[in-house]
Design a protein that fits this description.
The chain is an alpha+beta fold. The protein has a domain of 83 residues: Alpha-Beta Plaits (2-Layer Sandwich), CATH 3.30.70. A five-stranded antiparallel beta sheet has the order 2-3-1-4-5, covered by helices on one side. The chain is extended, with a radius of gyration of 22 Å. The relative contact order is 0.20.
Amino acid sequence: MKTAAMKTTATKTAAMKTSPVLLSFDLGIVGDYDQLFAWLDKHEAKECGNNLAIFDYSYRHDLLKEIRQDLRKTMKVTPKTRIYIMYKTGDAFKGNFIIGSRRSAPWTGMANIATAEDTL
C-alpha cells in the first residue's frame, strides 16, 4: 500500500565532460615526481617540454576542483609544489594555479628599459 508520505527519489548521474588540459608543474628538488608521473601516465598525457604535459581530463561538474582533488589524493603536496593548468572554456583559454601560487619571474629586471631623466 502506497501512502502520500512515501516519496521516491530519482538519482541523477551527472554526465561526464572532457576537457583538454595543459599542465605545468614545479615540485621543487624533493617533490613527489614518481606519483605525479604515474598520474600523468594513467591519463595518457603527452610530454610537451620540461615540466609540461597535455592530456584530456574527464570530470563531472568543476574541472579545477576535481583535478585539484584528484592530484592531492594521488601525490604528496609540499609548500614548494606548484601546478598550473591551462584549459578551454567556451571560446576562451584560461589558466589557474590549482596548487601553489605565482612567484616572481626569474627574468624580472633583466630588460634594459630606458628611464626618464631625474629632476633633483
